[in-house]
Amino acid sequence: MASTFLVVSDDPALVRKVRRLGPEYDLRVLHATDGVGAMYVAEKERPQAVLVEDGLAGMDAYELLAKLRVAELGRSCVRILLTLPENGSGKVAPVPDADTVLYAPCDPRNLVAVVKDRVRHHEALDELETRLGVAEQEAQRLRAELERRRLDGEKTLSTHPLYDKVTLFPTLPLCIEPLTEHLTQGDRVDLLVIDVGRYYRMEEIHGWQFIDRVMNFLAVRMSDYCQTSIPEEVIPVVSTPGGGDFLLFICQSSDDQKAALIRHPGSRRERIDQIVSELGELLEQSLMSEFGDEFGRYITFHFGWTSIEHLPQVRLERTIYDAIARATQGALRHSERDVQAKITELEQIIREDRIRTVLHPIVNLDTFEIAAVEALSRGPKGSLFENPQVLFELAASANKVWTLDRICVRRSLLQFESQAFQGALFLNIDPDSLSDPEFRSLSFLGEHRHMASKLVIEITERAAINDLALLRELRVFLRELGIRIALDDVGAGYASFETIAELEPDFLKIDKSLIRGIGENTIKLNLVTSLVSFAKSVGIAIVAEGIETPEQLDIVQATGAHYGQGYLFAIPSEQIPLSIAKLRVDPAALTFRRV
């Protein structure tokens, strides 16, 4: 099929010569003498090429080329400018709306040859783009299909009774058959147990939904590592759904073993040690990157390894379960060594008195003034012990709680008194320290006894619920000294109205687990509203902890809570901000639904 070629020129001799050459080059030649006529012909005939001669009357060539470019004549339309060389130099400035520039005088045969060549070139590009577009559409369809199948697979796995719905890893019963097949074929099978330390403690503190997200994250990172860094077949398993450990069965045929020996010269144990080192570092760094350094350092990983050998006289299932028991014991020994090393480090920190105090503002939600600060104790900056959960858990393991708490209280009082602040100081006291003779004699205050009226002792519900008789004694003892009492962690799962009745606290601190997601959870909202209403009716002030967003602040204000605390206002630091202007939130920029 002939290509349509529009010549826009007022030179009849050029037009005649091009028309005569048209059939030879398979071109159907159209003609226009000015810009208006050219646009009419172009929009009607949609030519594959247009030659515009410079010097047209009315609409100049450059304006016409610009109009042709936006006229949507098709991706294969070739726009050619025929012009005189600038200043006789043989060159012209670039013409953005022209695909090709030719200079007059021009040989007509050369002209039509150029036109035909450019048309073919553009048509080839057009065809290639069409094919690429079709290929991309097909690729998108395939990606969508694969994603659909993946989601369907995940949905199926998440409801399968023998798959862990959090990690999407199979549980052990599903893996006995493939493991048996490997062992009966003489393949080597190594087992690596990875125990996620403090798993159940994390669940108590952060809730099962958050820990499910952590475990899913770890499973994805572990799968990526196995696929990219372990050439052998790896069968990832969880021993029980919702558990805190992973099992990696690494299966090698004899050929795999030879290839692995070439890639990684040395003993199998050296290779497993390398996997443990790489995987442990990957998981730790990924956790810190995803969930923050403090949380990432809190989680620990303990590894246990064994090789599974098939003995014909022993049932294969028993062989596999015995191997799991051995590897689990190895992980436990690793955990014990890890804990002992950390206890030794903590004892040195205590001896050297390397405990820091940071202060976290508590804000009056009516006036937005800083009414009080809470003293928070931290270990050395950048260390594992910067996380207070690790600090006090290991202190309990080492029977050092009283010693540590004495240091923390002393440091807190010194840090607080060094500030020009007239508000109150909330002091956390570990539950075990309530029985400390030094605490009961108030000698822990030392030279700071004059500060008693400014002190608020925070007692967690976890402690209060254990010994109500001690609470009654403690309440009388503290009241006589003018020290007020706050019940901490209210709503964290240990709540007891009997505890509140016996302790008669001045403050109830609503746990951050109730504030997190309060805008999307009507049960949490109703619980907080009820607690505020109850507290007001008996003359107790409410402190809402964990306020991190303007929306949460808005809702907490609407419940009528007296005070707020959280990262929205400020992060804990050694210095107390002098005013609300120094905090992270500008109250004037917020809209409250105060009721």
Secondary structure tally: strands:
17
Which sequence of strands runs across the widest sheet?
10-11-12-13-14-15-16-17
Radius of gyration: 39 Å
What ranges have pLDDT less than 50 throughout 5 or more consecutive residues?
591-595
Instruction: Please report which band the strand proportion falls in: under 5%, 5-15%, 15-25%, 25-35%, 35-45% or over 45%.
Output: 15-25%
Helix content: 40-55%
Q: What's the tally of helices?
A: 20
- Helix/strand/pairing category: alpha/beta
Span between N and C termini?
80 Å
Tell me the layout of helices and strands.
Blueprint: E1 3-8, H1 12-21, E2 27-32, H2 35-45, E3 49-53, H3 61-70, E4 78-83, E5 100-103, H4 108-159, H5 172-184, E6 188-197, H6 199-206, H7 208-229, E7 233-238, E8 245-252, H8 254-263, H9 268-291, H10 293-298, E9 300-308, H11 316-351, E10 356-364, E11 370-378, H12 388-397, H13 401-417, E12 424-428, H14 437-440, E13 455-460, H15 461-464, H16 468-481, E14 484-490, H17 497-503, E15 507-510, H18 512-515, H19 522-537, E16 541-544, H20 550-559, E17 563-564
Parallel strand pairs: 1-2, 1-3, 3-4, 4-5, 11-12, 12-13, 13-14, 14-15, 15-16, 16-17
Antiparallel strand pairs: 6-8, 6-9, 7-8, 10-11, 10-17
